[in-house]
């Protein structure tokens, strides 16, 4: 039997997939590459790890399921199994509407899903992974669920309350990943700075990262999904002093207008956010800040949106992404607010925000021209070596492009020094020195 597992949604889903694939591979079942076209007949069984977070992600997951159903009807695959957030959130509806799927499983149904494949779960492999990322980097999920109550977010209802993974388990997993050739750990969770509050009654993210940095073979540790409230000072101290901790903070702020933040059920206001950003840049010189914003949330008028534009203009985030508000059933926002901003206005505001950020990103990238930076070579495509510095995270940030006449061989996955020679609003160009 050959199995293909397709992961949709966030990097946290990818970690779940890799744990599952490890159990499957250990049983002797062959794993087909994730990007193999279904109609090539490479896999007997297709498993889809789905996302149910926002409308676009749900649609992507449903479309992926339907493509698998089509491949099954045409005889390319024999069985389809679906798990993950979409399956958990809409189990009854999916079972009724897509009967061609051989089994739908929730987030905690790893053992039943394995049993459907004829695989017995092995506790000894609980902290082991079958990597689906390039060999030199991997995501490390340090907790599950979330205790926040943001009005727009369905995650607590899907994944439950916050539960930190035991630190010894994470250290063991990091050692296992390093043994597979991983050099960069990207730490993820619904809220990474909340780590340890349930187990130690205090934030333990800095002690965790310090311990992970002692793992032989790990050269970079990058932090994603940090919440602004209660951001721990000891984490900034560690980031400033420990060369293995990337000076990179991914901190989704979502908005700055006090009215909108209140309706979002998020603490703080523009003044507190400005003070936090100033502290980051003072305590960690050279830090690269990434954030995300939501436009079109109920209560956001033109005045509040202009507040957001002014805030972004002043803060000059090195990286910024944005989403339009998506009303999600079962959330506080869907139950208590009217989705009052039209889709046209949402898209118009999104375009204005991203146009502003494009100029800011361009200025930041131009400021790096002429500098020498240490980068990791991720891949080689069409005569170009695709690299990243500690200021770029894979998949979500730009790349540093190094033209080369031929494939570089052993350079992939290793660190090299380059000189930045050019810039646009997203990517940089460079040459090896």
Strand order of the largest sheet: 6-9-10-11-12-13
Mean of the pLDDT scores?
95
In percent, how helical is the residue content? Answer: 25-40%
Q: What can be said about the biggest beta sheet?
A: 6 strands, parallel
Q: Low-confidence runs (pLDDT<50, min 5 residues)? A: none
Report the C-alpha radius of gyration, rounded: 22 Å
Total beta-strand segments: 18
Descriptive overview:
With 433 residues, this protein is an alpha/beta fold. It contains 14 helices and 18 strands. The strands form four sheets. Strands 6-9-10-11-12-13 form a six-stranded parallel sheet. A five-stranded parallel sheet has the order 2-1-3-4-5, with helices on both faces. Helix 9 links the parallel strand 10 and strand 11. The radius of gyration is 22 Å and the shape is globular.
In short:
The protein is an alpha/beta fold and 433 residues long.
Task: Provide the fold topology.
Elements: E1 2-7, H1 11-26, E2 30-32, E3 45-50, H2 55-73, E4 79-84, H3 85-89, H4 91-97, E5 103-104, H5 110-116, E6 137-141, E7 143-144, H6 155-159, E8 163-164, H7 167-179, E9 184-188, H8 205-212, E10 220-223, H9 233-241, E11 245-250, H10 258-264, H11 270-283, E12 288-295, H12 302-315, E13 319-324, H13 332-336, H14 343-367, E14 372-381, E15 384-389, E16 400-403, E17 415-423, E18 428-432
Parallel strand pairs: 1-2, 1-3, 3-4, 4-5, 6-9, 9-10, 10-11, 11-12, 12-13, 16-18
Antiparallel strand pairs: 7-8, 14-15, 14-17, 15-16, 17-18
């Amino acid at each position: 039997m050959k199995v293909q597992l397709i992961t949709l949604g966030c990097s946290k889903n990818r970690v779940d997939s890799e744990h599952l694939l490890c159990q499957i591979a250990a049983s002797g079942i062959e794993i087909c590459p994730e990007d193999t076209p279904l109609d090539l007949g490479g896999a007997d069984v297709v498993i889809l790890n789905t996302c149910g977070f926002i409308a676009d992600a749900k649609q992507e997951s449903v479309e992926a399921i339907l493509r698998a159903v089509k491949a099954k009807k045409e005889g390319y695959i024999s069985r389809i199994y679906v798990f993950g957030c979409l399956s958990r959130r809409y189990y009854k509806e999916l079972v009724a509407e897509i009967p061609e799927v051989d089994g739908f499983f929730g987030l905690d149904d790893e053992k039943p899903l394995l049993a459907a494949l004829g695989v017995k779960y092995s506790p000894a492999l609980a902290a082991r992974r079958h990597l689906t990322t390039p060999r030199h980097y991997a995501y490390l999920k340090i907790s599950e669920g979330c205790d926040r109550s943001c009005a727009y977010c369905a995650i607590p209802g899907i994944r439950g309350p916050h539960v930190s993974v035991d630190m010894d388990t994470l250290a063991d997993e990091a050692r296992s990943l390093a043994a597979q050739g991983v050099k960069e750990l990207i730490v993820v969770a619904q809220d990474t700075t909340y780590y340890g509050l349930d187990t130690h009654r205090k934030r333990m993210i800095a002690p965790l990262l310090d311990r992970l940095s002692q793992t032989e073979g790990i050269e970079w540790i990058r932090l994603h999904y940090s919440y602004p409230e209660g951001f721990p000072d000891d984490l900034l101290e560690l980031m400033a002093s420990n060369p293995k901790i990337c000076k990179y903070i991914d901190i989704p702020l979502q908005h700055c207008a006090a009215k909108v933040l209140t309706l979002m059920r998020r603490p703080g206001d523009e003044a507190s956010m400005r003070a936090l950003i100033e502290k980051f840049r003072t305590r960690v010189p050279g830090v690269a800040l990434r954030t995300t914003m939501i436009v079109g949330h109920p209560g956001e008028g033109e005045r509040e949106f202009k507040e957001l534009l002014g805030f972004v203009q002043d803060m000059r985030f090195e990286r910024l992404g944005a989403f339009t508000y998506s009303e999600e059933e079962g959330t506080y926002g869907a139950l208590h607010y009217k989705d009052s901003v039209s889709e046209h206005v949402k898209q118009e505001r999104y375009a204005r925000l991203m146009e502003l950020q494009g100029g800011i990103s361009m200025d930041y990238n131009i400021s790096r021209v002429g500098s020498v930076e240490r980068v990791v070579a991720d891949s080689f495509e069409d005569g170009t070596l695709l690299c990243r510095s500690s200021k770029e995270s894979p998949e979500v940030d730009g790349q540093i492009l190094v033209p080369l006449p031929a494939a570089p061989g052993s350079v992939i996955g290793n660190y090299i020094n380059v000189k930045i020679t050019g810039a646009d609003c997203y990517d940089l160009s460079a040459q090896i020195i």
